[in-house]
Amino acid sequence: MSHAATHDHHDDHHGAPKNFFQRWVMSTNHKDIGTLYLIFALTMFFIGGSFAMGIRAELFKPGMQLMQPYFFNQLTTMHALVMIFGAIMPAFVGLGNWMIPLMVGAPDMALPRMNNLSFWILPFAFILMLSTLFMPGGGPAGGWTMYPPLALQSDSLAYVVFAVHLMGISSIMGAINIIATILNMRAPGMDLLKMPVFVWSWLITAFLLIAVMPVLAGAVTMLLTDKYFGTNFFNPGGGGDPVLYQHIFWFFGHPEVYIMILPAFGIISEVVPTFARKPIFGYKAMVFAIACIAFLSFIVWAHHMFAVGLPLGAEIFFMYATMLISVPTGVKVFNWVATMWGGSMTFETPMLFSLAFIILFTIGGFSGLMLALVPADFQYHDTYFVVAHFHYVLVTGALFAIISAAYYWMPKWTGNMYSEFWGKVHFWNSVIWVNVLFFPQHFLGLAGMPRRIPDYNVAFANFNMISSIGGFLFGATQLIFIGVLIHCAFFSKKKATDRVWEGAKGLEWTVPSPAPHHTFEVPPVINDDELAHGHVND
Amino acid sequence: MKQETTRSPVADGDDSRRRGVRRTVTVLVAIVAFFFLISFVQIVLMK
Ligand code: HEM
Ligand SMILES: [Cu+2]
């Protein structure tokens, strides 16, 4: 690896190694590794998406259409694992890699070689996990939550556990790198409370990752030893308890869902001020709200387990703790709206996706609030209402924020403007079809349709067909995104300016577009007027 | 440990930054190990 780096020293202008292998496989450059993460996430997004198309095709009509039930279960399990660990999380890590050093004025991540390792573990982990689909026993089929004893029946458990370990190691190393970068590599004068909200959101998210990924690793290790090494952690026959698995899993699982939304909050907090041409309303409150949400996310896990039969006191505690999260979340939504209030807004594609996020994520928050009510959850638990809830927060929430960020920073990455026309076509189709896809699932859930099943009562036929049509069109719409990306990177004739957006503030806009291979080798002199939050303490 | 990707005088010369990174990583790795082990302890204590 040192060869690649020494080579860099001689290359003066661009500085990127010319050799493909050296540049991409041995990369220690935060921008190249960020690009690798983003391409990987996009690939996984389409693989996970193809599983979703299979699921919606089977559910298009009642009755068994296309596949065996066991294969259907593999599709739902793999869809979730691929989207969560392969698409959403790596996309945020890619955005963090690209933008955090640029935003705090650092020459690179604090640990560039570990950065390379964090990325290159992932393709192996996912090849390992996806390969189980082609094995005689098939892939994991017990759901992404891997509850025992069901998950223990799977022949591929050992492969999946090892893949999850690899993903966990990758995330932990990525998180350590991000924290070390933010705490130690900021340019002089970039005080913590002058950092962009996106950087803050990642700092806090990285601490969540560090606390909960090891717990997931512990939980799946216990699954493995229960299946193959004769332990009885979760086996009542040997004095264990399967409900304990659920506690451990959700102690990871709930913070995990916030890992997938806090960086999204950060992105929205960058995009909205830029296109409203106003500084964010209540910067310190925004940072504090993220920290509060992160703290609360550790004491709400059992809201996923209301129906297992917890003691009444626990049900009430977890219900109120969960409802408490609405307070800091409400602060954030209020502040985004207040930022736009009286601003001179324009509606370029990143802003459109961010606006859709604010509205649609809030719908997901409200359905979450409904699920947090213990007596209501007794009815909604394990129905399509839950499926509708988490797709509003994850698709129109996390994914829309990622797409918004891609449009927002793409000109900085490629040096070219994307096609605004096709961006808007992508946006309007996405926002319409995603609602056709997921909104009817609320009704299905309220009417009692269970999740994770390949067949259903004919009473649910109409809404399922509508949902499937929305699903196919939402899936097809994402091909437009590929077109926009390729056009922007390779064919667009319209060059981006350094600032790109009229209202954009922050260090990342002071470097040329496309961002050169090395930036801030000499720490920038921080001018508070250039920063979005340079004057918070005045 | 030299950061080879950069020619930055800060990364090369500044010892405090390098020590800061090291201290941060040490603390974080300790947290990771703690949470990994606690998940087993929790199970063993609770069952
Ligand atoms: C506004 C705050 C939120 C509240 C009050 C809330 C509440 C809940 C509750 C009570 C459940 C369990 C439902 C059940 O299984 O019966 C649930 C499930 C879920 N939530 Fe949320 N939620 C919130 C925000 C989010 C966010 C921001 C995300 C992700 C970005 C998310 C992702 C999920 C997922 C993935 C599940 C389903 C997990 C599974 O069983 O597979 N939620 N939520
Ligand atoms: Cu939760």
Automatic annotation (TrEMBL), chain A:
Cellular component terms (Gene Ontology): plasma membrane; respiratory chain complex IV
Subcellular location: Cell membrane; Membrane
Gene3D superfamilies per the UniProt record, alphabetical: Cytochrome c oxidase-like, subunit I domain (1.20.210.10)
Pathway field: Energy metabolism; oxidative phosphorylation
Domain annotation Cytochrome oxidase subunit I profile: ranges: 24-527
Zinc as UniProt keyword: no
Protein keywords: Cell membrane, Copper, Electron transport, Heme, Iron, Membrane, Metal-binding, Respiratory chain, Translocase, Transmembrane, Transmembrane helix, Transport
Transmembrane segments: 36-55, 75-96, 117-137, 157-185, 197-224, 244-268, 280-304, 316-338, 350-374, 386-410, 431-449, 469-491
Membrane-related topology note: Multi-pass membrane protein
Key word Hydrolase present: no
EC number: 7.1.1.9
UniProt-recorded Gene Ontology molecular function terms: cytochrome-c oxidase activity; heme binding; metal ion binding
Enzymatic reactions: 4 Fe(II)-[cytochrome c] + O2 + 8 H(+)(in) = 4 Fe(III)-[cytochrome c] + 2 H2O + 4 H(+)(out)
GO biological process, one term: electron transport coupled proton transport
InterPro entries named in the record: Cyt_c_oxase-like_su1_dom, Cyt_c_oxase-like_su1_sf, Cyt_C_Oxase_1, Cyt_c_Oxase_su1_BS, Cyt_c_oxase_su1_dom, Cyt_c_oxidase_su1_bac
Family matches, as NCBIfam families: CtaD_CoxA
Function as written in the Swiss-Prot or TrEMBL entry: Cytochrome c oxidase is the component of the respiratory chain that catalyzes the reduction of oxygen to water. Subunits 1-3 form the functional core of the enzyme complex. CO I is the catalytic subunit of the enzyme. Electrons originating in cytochrome c are transferred via the copper A center of subunit 2 and heme A of subunit 1 to the bimetallic center formed by heme A3 and copper B.
Family designation: Belongs to the heme-copper respiratory oxidase family.
UniProt protein name: Cytochrome c oxidase subunit 1
Organism: Rhodanobacter spathiphylli B39
TrEMBL record, chain B:
Organism domain of life: Bacteria
Protein's organism: Rhodanobacter sp. IGA1.0
Record field: transmembrane: 25-45
Keywords: Membrane, Transmembrane, Transmembrane helix
Record protein name field: DUF2970 domain-containing protein
